[in-house]
Specification:
CATH class of chain A: Mainly Alpha
Number of domains of chain A: 1
Shape of chain A: globular
Helix content of chain B: 40-55%
Largest sheet of chain A: 2 strands, antiparallel
Strand content of chain A: under 5%
Oligomer: heterodimer
Number of strands of chain A: 4
Number of helices of chain A: 11
Largest interface: A-B, 37 and 34 residues
Strand order of the largest sheet of chain A: 1-4
Order of helices and strands of chain B: HHEHEEHEHEEHEHEHEHEHEHHHEEEEE
Number of helices of chain B: 13
Distance between the termini of chain B: 77 Å
CATH architecture of chain A: Orthogonal Bundle
Shape of chain B: elongated
Amino acid sequence: MLIVDLVQSIVDGLLFGATYALIGIGFTLVFGVMHKINMAYAAASVGAAYAALRLIALIGGPAWASLLIAAAAGGVFGLIIYWLCFRFIPLSNPLATLMSTVGMFLLAEEIIVHTTDGMPQNYPVVVRGILDMGEFMIRGDLVFVFVCALLAMVVLLYLLYRTKLGIATRAVSQQPVAAQLVGIRLNHINALTFIVTGMLGGFAGALIGSAVGLLSPLLVIPLTIKGLIVTVIGGLGSIPGAIIAGLLVGMAENVFQYFRGVTERDIYVMLLLFVFLVFRPGGIFSNTVKRD
Amino acid sequence: MTIPRLLAASAFVTTMAISSAMPAAAQEREIRLSGFGAMSGVVRSFGINSKAALEAAADEINKSGGVKLGDGTKGKIVIDYFDDRCNAEEGISVTRRIASTSSLVGIGPTCSNVAEPLFGVLQKKVGDAGDSGLQFPIFTDVAIKGGLAKISEWAFRNVPDEGAMYAALFQWLKKTRPELKTIFGGVEEDFAHSRATWYAVMKEVAAKEGFEIKGEAKWLLADTNFTNQAREARRAAADIVAISAHPFTTCGMLKELGRQGVKPKLVIGLTSSSSLETLQGCAAEAEAIIIPTSFAPVTPEARAAADRAAKFNGSLDLHSGAAYEIVAILKDVIEGEGVLAKSDTVQADRAKIRNGLSKLTETKGLIGISKRTEEGEAVKPFLFVHAKGGKWEVLHNPTK
């Protein structure tokens, strides 16, 4: 029974970790391009899922449509965040954009709270079904999230390495001044990065809403924290790293909970982060230990 | 005398005549009562409903002639409401701010984790010159964790006694559903109320009534993944699953139980979850869940109060219903104790209200008479409700 439970915990954690991976990808992509952290990313993602839920309630439509609407809303929110928190803020000061996005995070959370009175909202199930093997079971919706995370990685890597937009984005990331000299519009590329990550975030927010079955402002802080942990463990700027780290954090969370209980669970996840910061500060896929 | 001067003189004479003929109206005073609770953050709905209930009750009293003060004049109740964000430091800060105004009573807070430290900054024993604690009456409507009013003689509560409610529920279940023998608990570990209710109330009274405790699963207020906990419930295969958690995680756990095909014969919920939030979050999964509550629109008074609160954009439940009752109780106390509501009698008025509240042995509530204990707590009448078709319906009235 112990082995079955342990395997089940690992599988559940890995699958649920896909939701963290999706959020982590957004954090890491913005960092990869602009070398900045967008603290409002998870809040905007949850906000986009709320927007989709509202629109679906208003005009009707199948549950899967909420994913597309949320992606569109996420893109809009991403652009708004770029304009309000990055476009006119001095990028040379690393604290400036950090604080502006923290402010946006709090604002987004309060907007959600005030528009919903903080009440949890039922979220439609996009994918149903459970693979039931007696004592062992696998949730279909989490497998869907898992597949989506892998697809997101493939699409983003394709965008970055096989398209003109990707080349421009990488140029901006590596040499912003040189990129401008060859005619790449810096602000345009940065704005596009925020739109793309925002769309991914909205999609992720809707998937998370569907996987949890609910939307609540309570999701915002844990997703932000998990997103940041995943970004650090995966390596700032590494998309495959974010995926692996998301799965790892989800699995670690569930396994620690299984062995040590819910009250100690987060202590061990934080310890995991600490271990990476000390022994592998560059993240999972870094070749060398880079420390001061 | 020109016509404008004549008109002005007439107006002056008329004004003087009216004011001398209506002394009471001219002297109508404000009785300031200050509500405080969560108006932001994830428990904002509690604050919204409490504020609406307080305003609705005050409006009703004011329309019916107001409150008779100690010198025979009529007073009008004015409600302020402050946000404490369900945060202990902010709750204490807000209370200190309210106490520095002409407000006579503080009504709140929403959260038990605010109430407990807040009561600690009040003067413990009345008249203790060595205790520099705040001398300001607090009458709590929502924070429900058991036994908090005994912390200070300035603290009073109009919250239901969960011990009595769940004891009655398990006794009733034992009598009417003899096939139910075992129980599995689910508890939100990091919230004072839900934790206390499972460990000190549900678990204890269930065991006392002969139900076998088959285990318990724990989670945190903001958790989203309940796979481990639902699996524990599945394995326990108990007849009853009791969920001591607030709506967000109650719904999360119910949904996961559904996914894993766990179908207990009965689900029992936490008092605070007998609200719209639960139905909005998971009406289908919460179908048939039973929760004891101290409010349901079962009497004409309760129905009228619910309608009035709705006009102030609030919903009456066991918490906001208590806020509504508090205003009515305070009206009686103010009238009975001869409160003056003058700017130079604020502290004396607060002391009178405190004395009046401490003397109460029973109060009239929306669904019946509540008893008052010497420790400042209420023993309120209650009902068992269950979720049916997306609504809360009365399942059983233990007083009948």
